[in-house]
Design goal:
Chain lengths: 354, 368
């Protein structure tokens, strides 16, 4: 078996986690709410909607081309988005037949279940094993997912001759110049999955249009989020996130409108001088901007962290030209990019370890 | 009365208040703060909006504590100024090294800023008026960083107290050889030195010296300020004080921490040098004292109400020198009030960018 088959084995294992009749699915549903702090209905919905378990031939070809051939790859996983290990393992195993995975303390369930599925599938080629420590040797690669500070710390521990591929802080934005009910419903779903813990989640919405249209969009989005909370209830909020919510509300009182309810906050500001990005669950900052050019100017200080750009109008297209590495998706599809390589395309090549 | 004239009158009142004794509370503090707030609410749309949102009528203000605080984030999002952009004398900008947009502080006049900075700086950094003082600056010169409020203040010190100062951080590089030469010349002339440094530049210097001493002349002192923002390795404040003092042959109490921020026109200082000189009683390291025209109150991050005495909160700062912007700002700096001032505990944690993050502790295996 080659790299393509190994990736297909990972996807087949992932598919078991969504199969209602499979014991691995039942275990995932039983354990993930405790591990993630997300309620069971939200876990189930995210598994069904966002867990990668298939890919087209072309996507697989792209994924295989996105990683160099190696003998052994080490993976350090983050714990924020519980479906993320599937792509991370697929990429690592596409790259090398031997993979060692260090899961996050907050994200062990999916890696453990995936590995159990791989052990049970009878495949003989390659190996993936969990480890509690990182032990990369010269000539080997490390794929790491985490905060920028964490990645720097990891890279600093690597011996000379290793290759390091870090995927750090990131978030999504949406650029709209129309706001149909379907678009807003899709956007709300992108926001609600994983309570915005991932780098694909939109936290900032740029409305290229009238102020009235922007206010209406913010109001509609907030309404959709509150309705959606019945289907996808939010998880636990950390004290610092609660504080961040209050800080955001206090700031918005000076600059714009706030739509705040039991589960979500959507702020609206017209013609901002600068952008801020909320850092609490189900918080969206919406701004009205006169043109795509102005949007690009305002996004410039944030551009290096933008991993995904949602939107499907001409304005989104023009803004995207300034952030060519950002994945593009229509609202409602930001959380499930094609399995054609890393989610984060900001660093197409590894850098040396120290 | 035109806004410009009103502003001028308020500036004059604040400068007059700054002439009051620095070791006594300012009797006019509340009245002046409320007058400033009324002027700002009448002239600055963002502040007017905040007053409306909080249901506060500027006309009924009696106490500074009743004034809605403008969160520092707002300085990134919109113009916080009671004057027109065409009247900006200077715009100070927050550091560009951290994530996202930079905050802008628009000043119609720098006169009050300079006046207050010199008044408090003299008290905390040169209360003994050392003769022949030379200022050496480990920070970017104003021509390289014209929007730095710290650079503005340091230049004001150097011009007012010494010979204009010598700057040793240019183009992002620390001129260690030039600094050594300047120190040698000061030693030769037996001229005390005031070394004004950002924390990260001080760490750069200590690293560059690699344990070798660079003794400053007797009577010298250091003012260090600011965070690191990823520009050098971070050294805890107490460790940095000890390292700097031993390298520069100073008493640790001659290393004075300053607390300021772009959104403010006033500064707080440790009183350690005054303690060393026997001008005040025992002054504890890490305790920052404010001038009488500046008050800091720790508030609950959720409710924004003052916390009980001795409890930790985030700093709500009333700065009368903020005449044309926001007289009360809400920061995310964690503080605790103590005898003689407040202690800075760091930034409100856990509110960075979300997304694909895990902690270093977790990665290293120590997390839960």
């Amino acid at each position: 078996m080659g790299a393509r088959e190994r990736v297909l084995r990972v996807l087949a294992g992932a598919a078991r986690l969504t199969d209602r009749s499979d014991p691995l699915h039942r275990e995932a549903i039983a354990r993930l709410p405790t591990e993630t702090g997300l309620p069971a209905p939200s876990v189930l919905a995210a598994l069904d909607a966002c867990l990668e378990r298939s890919a087209t031939h072309q996507e697989l070809t792209s994924l295989l081309a996105s990683v160099p051939l190696e003998q052994r790859v080490h993976v350090v996983l983050a714990g924020n988005v519980f479906v993320a290990p599937v792509r991370a393992l697929a990429l690592a195993w596409a790259s090398a037949p031997e993979v060692l995975v260090k899961p996050s303390h907050r994200g062990r369930v999916v890696p453990e279940l995936l590995l159990r599925a791989l052990q049970e599938d009878g495949g003989r080629d390659g190996s993936i094993a969990l480890t509690e420590s990182l032990s990369a040797k010269p000539g080997e690669s490390v794929h790491a997912y985490g905060s920028d500070a964490t990645l720097e710390a990891i890279q600093g521990t690597l011996p000379p001759g290793t290759r390091f591929w870090g995927h750090g802080h990131g978030f999504g934005i949406t650029v709209l110049d129309t706001s149909s009910s379907e678009i807003v419903r899709g956007l709300a779903r992108d926001v609600a999955y994983f309570d915005q813990r991932g780098c694909l989640s939109p936290r900032l919405v740029l409305w290229i249009g009238s102020e009235e249209g922007g206010v209406a969009l913010a109001r509609k989005l907030h309404g959709e989020l509150e309705v959606l909370a019945r289907e996808l209830p939010p998880g636990r909020e950390a004290p610092e996130e609660t504080a961040a919510r209050h800080q955001y509300l206090a700031a918005m009182e000076a600059v714009g409108d706030i739509f705040s309810g039991a589960t979500a906050v959507v702020g609206f500001q017209s013609g901002p001088e600068g952008l801020i990005v909320p850092s609490f669950p189900r918080g969206v900052h919406t701004v009205q901007i006169s043109s795509p050019k102005r949007a690009r100017e305002l996004l410039a200080p944030w551009a290096q962290w933008i991993t995904c750009l949602g939107g499907n109008g001409a304005a989104a297209e023009q803004v995207a030209q300034g952030i060519p590495w950002a994945r593009r998706a229509a609202p409602g599809h930001m959380q499930r990019p094609p399995l054609d390589g890393p989610v984060d395309r900001r660093h197409p090549a590894p850098s040396p370890g120290r | 009365m035109s806004p410009a004239l009103r502003s001028e009158q308020l500036h004059a009142r604040v400068r007059a208040a700054m002439d009051a004794p620095l070791d006594l509370p300012l009797p006019s503090f509340d009245a002046l703060a409320c007058d400033l707030a009324r002027y700002q609410a009448a002239s600055c749309p963002a502040i007017a909006r905040l007053f409306r949102a909080r249901g506060v009528d500027p006309a009924t203000l009696r106490l500074a504590s009743e004034i809605p605080a403008v969160p520092t984030e707002v300085f990134k999002m919109t113009r916080v100024a009671a004057h027109e952009p065409s009247q900006d004398a200077v715009v100070f900008r927050t550091s560009g090294t951290t994530a996202g947009a930079r905050g802008n502080h628009h000043l119609r006049s720098t006169l009050t800023y300079r006046y207050g900075a010199l008044r408090m700086g003299e008290r905390m950094l040169i209360p003994d008026r050392p003769e022949g003082l030379r200022t050496l600056l480990l920070m970017s010169p104003t021509e390289e960083a014209p929007d730095s409020s710290l650079g503005f203040m340091a230049a004001a010190f150097a011009q007012a107290w010494a010979d204009g100062g010598q700057w040793f951080l240019r183009g992002g590089s620390l001129d260690v050889a030039g600094l050594k030469q300047a120190v040698a010349e000061a030693r030769e002339a037996r001229a005390p030195v005031l070394l004004l440094a950002t924390s990260f530049a001080l760490v750069y210097l200590l690293d560059a010296l690699a344990g070798k001493a660079l003794p400053l002349p007797p009577g010298s002192r250091v003012m260090q300020t600011g965070g690191y923002k990823g520009r050098s390795r971070e050294v805890p404040a107490d460790e940095l004080r000890v390292l700097a003092a031993s390298t520069l042959a100073l008493d640790p109490r001659a290393v004075v921490s300053e607390y300021g921020m772009t959104e403010l026109c006033s500064q707080a200082y440790e009183g350690t040098l005054r303690g060393l000189l026997g001008l005040d009683g025992a002054t504890q390291e890490g305790v920052l004292a404010t001038p009488p025209w500046m008050q800091i109150t720790p508030v609950d991050p959720d409710t924004l109400r003052p916390v009980p005495p001795g409890h930790e909160g985030i700093a709500r700062i009333t700065d009368l020198a903020n005449v044309d912007s926001a007289v009360v700002i809400q920061t995310q700096d964690r503080i605790r009030q103590v005898e003689g001032g407040f202690v800075l505990l760091g930034r409100l944690s856990g509110a960075p960018l979300r997304g694909c993050s895990l902690t270093v502790e977790e990665m290293l295996g120590g997390g839960p």
